[in-house]
Amino acid sequence: MPIFALNESLLFPPPHLAEPDGILAIGGDLTPQRLLLAYEKGIFPWYSETEPILWWSPDPRFVLYPDALKIAKSMRPILRKGIFQVSYDQEFKQVVGRCKQIARPGQEGTWITGDMMNAYCTLHDMGFAHSVEVWKDDQLVGGLYGVSLGRCFFGESMFAEVSNASKVGFITMVQDLRERQFQLIDCQVPTQHLASFGAIEIARQQFLTELEEGLIPSGMIGNWGQLMGRTIPTQ
Fold first, then answer.
1. Residue 1 pLDDT
2. Helices (DSSP H) in the chain: which residue ranges?
3. Beta-carbon contacts of residue 209 (< 8 Å; ≥ 6 apart)
4. Fewer beta carbons within 10 angstroms: which end of the chain, N or C?
5. CB atoms within 10 A of CB 51
6. How far apart are CA 56 and CA 204, in angstroms?
7. Gap between the Cα atoms of 93 and 97, Å rounded
8. Contact (CB, 8 A) for 129 and 153
């Protein structure tokens, strides 16, 4: 199948027309309107500094259902002792920046380009992109960020500078979203790390069907720190 070239029109080809590796389209822009439309349709951008914007919709899709969250026995005392503190939307730009900078095994450079960072900061200002911050001794030591639409959360990246920090942030977020009847957490592509939490592969069509069902109002547009009562003042 061809890779579709986008123009200024706010349109995407149907996800089922993606290449076997998941690439669907090339070009376009990172305006809030296009990004939100992409997520609504099960599409996301992923490219490097040296590439044009690439849009993906892989099959199968890697997802976590909040009710299926698995917590390893080794994590339970860490959660119980309160070694880390978790907040939301207190340091969004810093979290994205740490995700951009952290070295990842087998990966050269980063896909979080300057344009991507600016685009997601705009979505954050609009109340659609959110960060999870993990603190230890008043220092930011881990976190993650993503986009929320309806009762679905689309994870983008995470980082940890202290062992177990990002795990605590992720578990806390999933538990909080489960309490608010979120239906789906999109993990995009398989990783062993997220599989350990219970994430599984599902067919793209099943994902799109469940995504459409999950795009119902949740009252969670805005600052999650205030909405969930998890704000930690930083110095």
1. 63
2. 32-40, 76-81, 92-101, 114-125, 165-179, 192-195, 204-214, 224-228
3. none
4. C
5. 11
6. 12
7. 6
8. no
**Contact present, 123 and 153 (Cβ < 8 Å):** no
Q: How far apart are CA 3 and CA 6, in angstroms?
A: 10
Structure confidence by residue, pLDDT tens digits, 155-196? 999 999 999 999 999 999 999 999 999 999 999 999 999 999
* Sign of the CA dihedral running 216, 30, 122, 135: positive
pLDDT in tens, 110-133: 679 999 999 999 999 999 999 999
Question: In terms of DSSP bridges, do strands 54-56 and 85-88 run parallel, antiparallel, or are they unpaired?
Answer: unpaired
Mean pLDDT in residue range 125-144: 97
Can you spell out the DSSP letters for 95-134? HHHHHHHS-BTTB-S-S--HHHHHHHHHHHHTTSEEEEEE
With a pLDDT cut of 90, the percent of the chain lying above it is: 90
Q: Looking at residue 103, what is its pLDDT?
A: 60
The token pair at 60 is 């199968």
